[in-house]
Each structure stands twice: as C-alpha cells, then as structure tokens.
Specification:
The chain has one domain: Beta Barrel (Cyclophilin), CATH 2.40.100. With 219 residues, it is α+β, with helices and mostly antiparallel strands.
C-alpha cells in the first residue's frame, strides 16, 4: 500500500490572545462557513485506466486543478515550475479521465493529518501504467507539510504515480513526498471529512464519510 509515514516528532503550540476594543467599538460579526454537504455518489472501485505517459518538456507553467467531488469543489494551485514532472503527469491523468468516479481511500487523523486519494481500485495499491521520480521535496523540519499542502504518496523512492494526499492540519513527516500544489478552495471540505473520522473508529483507514472525485478540470 502506498502510504505516507510520519517519523519526525511533532509539537503543538497554542497561543491565547485577548482582544480589547475601544469603548463603543463593536467587533465585526464572524461569518460562519457554509456547512459541508456530501451528496450520494455512484463512485466505486474499478479497473485502472491506461494513460499514455506524457512527454515532459518546457515551457513549464503553473496549473489549476478543480476537483469536483460529491462534497463540493476542491481547487488546487499546481506548481508546474517547481514540480514539472509531477504536474505534467497529473494533468495527463486528469485529462484522460483517470480520476473520474474514484473515492478517497485513506484518512489519517493522528500525528499526521492527511486525506489520500487517486487510486481507482480503492485499495491503496493502484496506479497508472507508469511511474516517475520525486521532485520538490521539503526540508526535514517541523511542519514541513503545512495545512493545504498537496503531495504525492509513493511506495518507495521514485515511485510516484497517481495517488496524492491533501494535508488538512500542519504535519511533520520525512521529506520523501513530492509537493506539487496547495489547496486554494475547499480545504474546509477535507477538514469536515476528517472530523467524521475513520469507518472502524481508528486513526487510519477508509473515511466514514465517503468523498469521491466525480471529475477533474485542468487549466
């Protein structure tokens, strides 16, 4: 199974701030975020679709991936300049319909905080008919995968394929996972899925609330 593994120690610092308002001043009302509503989906495990390995050539540019899920849109700004091999491959997979009707198969809620997607088989072992090397790796420091980061899952060195994970809380991990983008819209969806927990009540496994990728648009 392709997994992200946490080995660095983590620490959490909570800062308590007291806000003072001048006499007569009124704090602006806090706008509550809209609730996340997940619709029924007919996504299910299925055979991997073969996609022709794309040619990686300049000019390299940043891209926007819009993942339409049964729980809403998740928009990812992809860094094609820092991770050109990865973004080129993922764009080819997305444009070829590889991700359509696939569900996110792995949620981790303890020490590392990720939602993992991108395997049509739903087993954690599926992927395309090609792999490629890692790139744009972070430093081995605390919170090297901050909330909103999107990175590749792998099964060892240079085995990137289709599976990726979205970090929903700051996370410290070995710097072995290619960072290729960040969530610019929809991180609250991932957080809502995480809040529901894992099917079997543990800290790692299939999300209790199914979230499925219905389709992907790349521009």
């Amino acid at each position: 199974m392709q997994k992200v593994v946490k080995t660095l120690a983590t620490s959490t610092i909570l800062t308590i701030c007291t806000l003072y308002f001048p006499t007569g001043a009124v704090a602006a009302p806090t706008k509550k975020p809209a609730p996340v509503i997940c619709k029924p989906t007919n996504a299910k495990a299925h055979t991997v679709k073969n996609i022709t390995p794309p040619e990686v050539k300049p000019p390299f540019k940043n891209r926007t991936f819009t993942f339409t899920t049964n729980c809403g849109e998740i928009v990812i700004q992809a860094n094609g300049k820092s991770a050109p091999i990865t973004v080129t491959a993922l764009a080819a997979l997305a444009n070829g319909g590889f991700y359509n009707k696939t569900f996110c198969h792995r949620l981790v809620t303890d020490e590392i905080y990720v939602l993992q997607c991108g395997d049509p088989t739903g087993t954690g072992r599926g992927g395309p008919n090609f792999t490629y090397r890692a790139e744009n790796l972070p430093q081995a420091v605390e919170a090297n995968y901050p909330a909103g980061t999107v990175a590749m899952a792998n099964n060892g060195a240079n085995t990137n394929g289709s599976q990726f994970f979205i970090v929903y809380e700051d996370t410290s991990m070995n710097p072995n996972y290619t960072i290729w983008g960040r969530v610019t819209k929809g991180l609250e969806i991932v957080k809502a899925i995480a809040k529901e927990g894992v099917v079997d009540g543990t800290s790692e496994g299939l999300p209790k609330q199914m979230i499925a990728i219905e389709r992907v648009r790349v521009r």
